[in-house]
Amino acid sequence: MARMKFVCDAERCIECNGCVTACKNENEVPWGVNRRRVVTLNDGVPGEKSISVACMHCSDAPCMAVCPVQCFYRTEEGVVLHDKDVCIGCGYCSYACPFGAPQFPSQGTFGVRGKMDKCTFCAGGPEANGSEAEFEKYGRNRLAEGKLPACAEMCSTKALLAGDGDVVADIFRTRVVQRGKGAEVWGWGTAYGSQQAGTPPAGGVRK
Amino acid sequence: MRRPGLVFAGAALAASCLAACGEKPQTNAQGVKHDAVPWSGTGTQENVGTVFTAPGWKVGDKTAWQQQLKTRAQNGQNEYNKEN
């Protein structure tokens, strides 16, 4: 099986924030924490685009590399998760992440930085699948229910795609071929290590 | 007499070069708690689902789970299947 991946189709995103709402509702994310948010690219410039951003579950995740207590782990399906019982809330992952995914609740007992919270690809955490402890710390475990992340399934224009990398890439490729534009997959190269799609290779146009 | 040594050195060199081609371990090497596999379902009993488990796949069957996610992605996110 390929790895679980997110793709946001900037040609389709209408900045409705449905994904943000779906995520907050499904996982009961606390106030002040947004695991997913919609970002406008080139705001105010003609042709501006919007994309939905969260943890991309990178192939070589920088958060994992910098964590001093090694609270991160990657599942067999390529989902990057973390153990909140190990996290010390230092914030290094926040500085390392190119997508701004790690979030820190500010209403905890121990000051401004609680334990890190981020998108789990709706895969919960290290607690038992579907348990109350897992839900309280990490949110719903939809993958174990045979479902895909709520943000993508809720997306009204199907701009946000989530699932097996092969499948979502194939769906996106079909769209690009049909419409003949909009091949830019924002963040794909950064997260999964290939060249940013739609951009010419370094050193000139490929022949 | 030198041949076995050369062969061994060559093999060691090839092994060390190829080691760089390997994928980094994706497992939980650092010892934090590890998650149960997602195809084991969310029920309190092993390999048993709940009312929230999506129908159409057998809990505990990895292949069925993978196929379920692929089918769900195609049905839910690829409207070209419906239009064309």
UniProtKB/TrEMBL annotation, chain A:
Keywords carried by this UniProt record: 4Fe-4S, Electron transport, Iron, Iron-sulfur, Metal-binding, Transport
4Fe-4S ferredoxin-type domain ranges (all copies): 4-34, 47-77, 78-107
Cofactor(s) demanded: [4Fe-4S] cluster
Gene Ontology terms, MF aspect: 4 iron, 4 sulfur cluster binding; electron transfer activity; metal ion binding
InterPro entries with a match to the protein in the record: 4Fe4S_Fe-S-bd (IPR017896), 4Fe4S_Fe_S_CS (IPR017900), 7Fe_ferredoxin (IPR000813), ET_IronSulfur_Cluster-Binding (IPR050954)
Entry coiled-coil feature ranges: none
Presence of the UniProt keyword Metal-binding in the record: yes
NCBIfam families referenced in this protein's UniProt entry, alphabetically: FDH3_beta
Protein name: Formate dehydrogenase iron-sulfur subunit
Biological source species: Variovorax paradoxus
